[in-house]
Amino acid sequence: MRSRWLTIFLVAGLAAGGAYYYWQHHTDPKLDIQTVAAKKSDVRRVVSTSGAVSALISVDIGSQLSGNISEVNVDYSSEVKKDQVLARIEPSTFETRVRQGEAAVAVAKANVALQQAAVERAEANLHKAELDLHRAQELVTRGAGAQVTLDTALAAQQSGQADLDSAKANLENAKANVALNEATLDSARIDLERTYIRAPLDGVIIDRTVQVGQTVAASLSAPKLFTMAQDLSQVQIQAQVDEADIGQVTSDNTVTFTVDAYPDMKFEGKVEQIRLAPVSLANVVTYTVVIGADNPMGRLLPGMTANVEIVTGEHKDVVTVPNEALRFQPRGAVQEALVRVSSQPGALQLASDDRSARMLARLKDQLELSEQDLSKIKVALEAEFAAIKSAGPPGAGASQQDMRDQARMRVAKVLRAVLPADKYKKYEEMQRQRPTGPRRATLWTYENGALVPHDVRLGLADSSMTEVVQGLPEGAQVVTRVRELAP
């Protein structure tokens, strides 16, 4: 009897263990479906970069002359006015040259007076020679004078004319010499004036590289003595934007930036210029974006590094979902079993007869198709998409974009087979020039024990959220992750 009961208990224990093992390994695993509600919020798309703060207009002030600095009248951060004397080069050498020039002009003017007197003397001599010639001609005519006397008078008259011409030429030369010496004097005076280093505009000195007694050598290029900024109430930032982001940036984009000196303060500016010249460094291509900003309290100093965010788009109070929801796709047999197949949109089919008719009408107009060609295309498209229908619905992991891409490939396949080569080439060109529409994606919600796909149109996106323009209501619980729990 005891052996019999022992056998019964053993068989019952084995049966219970087998049932438990079967339940553990053959029942569906539990799923942890994580969802987030679609909510209204602000979306702000930015391009992040950095650049150095600089004055709106800065000028390097140098010297065209060589010499020793005899005085310096300004220092760092000095506010100056236009034409104010900043420094002076020792002027004695240049003053001497001015005096030499003045003396040379005086000598040249005296020489002009001498040559003028010579011209007047030559005119008098010529007048006397002409009178003598006239008397000699009358005497010879009357037979009372000798021919030799006439010849001598004629030679005297010609000599007097030559002397007058020479005197006039010497006078013009003397006048030209006066002009030459006056030009030399003007040059000496200009050099003397250049010993004063003056401010070219109103502003503030931001750099000084010269001291009293320092020798300035300006043989090949003007040495820099001062750097001044016109007005620090406005500054600019030259930021480098990567070629991948430059397409989003346009003039008048709003900019916010911070500097390390004031980490808790945000400054605002605006994109003023996008320079077309590329900057290539270590195979990285960037473009210079010039940003203007106000600096009313003078906090921003030249040379500070600005951490810039260029706002390329901003939508307020729109429906948004986390970016994780866009990356979710059901995977694995258990998750795909939860997909509500009947909700799959027929993206591989022509959406409707109306949409099909619009596409065929567009092809007819743009490609100038005959009715015969149009009929061939319609029959071929119907056959192509009928084959897709017979293959059954797509897998749960197929995205709406994948299905649309496949539909476009099917249409291109039909047109390639039906159209002549020249018209198909025109169709390809039309497709390349066709503007890109809004981004589309598939979002999933968990409703009544099933994963339901939603074909949506997307708008702006930032680092964490994406705008949903169409296809999903506010408050919808979108799936971000599905995790199988251990049994």
Defining traits:
Elongation Factor Tu (Ef-tu), domain 3, Helix Hairpins, 487 residues, 9 helices
CATH level 1 class label of one domain: Mainly Alpha
Strand content: 25-35%
**Widest sheet: strand order?**
2-11-14-13-12-15
Strand tally, please?
A: 19
Total of DSSP H or I helical runs spanning 4+ residues? 9
SSE arrangement:
Layout lengths: L1 H25 L4 E7 L1 E17 L2 E5 L4 E6 L6 E2 L4 E5 L2 H51 L4 H48 L1 E3 L4 E6 L6 E2 L7 E6 L4 E9 L11 E6 L2 E20 L2 E11 L10 E18 H5 L5 H5 L15 H15 L3 H20 L9 H19 L2 H13 L5 E9 L2 E12 L3 E6 L6 E8 L3
Antiparallel strand pairs: 1-19, 2-11, 2-15, 3-10, 4-6, 4-9, 5-8, 6-7, 8-10, 11-14, 12-13, 12-15, 13-14, 15-18, 16-17, 17-18
Helix pairs in contact: 2-3, 7-8
Structural commentary:
- The chain is an alpha+beta fold.
- Among the domains are: 46-55 and 229-316, Beta Barrel (Elongation Factor Tu (Ef-tu), domain 3); 64-89 and 197-223, OB fold (Dihydrolipoamide Acetyltransferase, E2P); 92-194, Orthogonal Bundle (Helix Hairpins), CATH 1.10.287.620.
- It is built from 9 helices and 19 strands.
- It has a 6-stranded antiparallel β-barrel.
- Helix 2 (92-142) packs antiparallel against helix 3 (147-194) and helix 7 packs across helix 8 (400-418).
- The longest helix is centred in the first third of the chain and has 51 residues, at 92-142.
